[in-house]
Amino acid sequence: MIIQPSLDTQLQPLTGNARPLEQWLTTFHLATIVLDPFTNESAWILPTAVRILRQFAGASVRTNFVITAPPDAAREFLGPHAQEFLVFCDPARTFVKQLGLSELPAFVYIQIDGSVPVSAQGWNAKAWRTVADHIATVVSWSKPSIPIAGDPASFKGSPALV
Length: 162
Fold this sequence. Notes:
By secondary structure, the chain is of the alpha+beta class. The chain has helices at 21-24, 40-55, 71-78, 81-84, 94-98, 125-139; strands at residues 10-13, 19-20, 29-35, 61-67, 86-89, 103-104, 106-110, 118-121, 158-159. The chain is globular, with a radius of gyration of 14 Å. The two termini are 24 Å apart.
């Protein structure tokens, strides 16, 4: 089932003004990793998430984090990665709801038309590899290796909607 979030949904970056999803998709697809900075599950996957998003640097996809917290908490959780990546704050989890997520962390691919053909919830290397492989195929880019030594063992995510 393809998810279709509203293109009018306002996405608030760490810096600058909120803009509707549609404007973030004018040029590139979104490779989005959604994290809750107040859970162990999101902390456990952060190094892996950074590695995966770095793999797509330079590809025709806008890599980003959606953090379910206000800007100060997002910056604290991400540390230097807050300056490296585009980061959206979703403390009310409005966007998380529209993405149909039930567990975090999540890896979501949002096509330029706003549809979500593939996503993964919780941490399961095979499911995240499926999302990464789909993105790599669509944008003609190299696929990241998932998992690699040092990645966590599979785990169920924390509730996305609290």
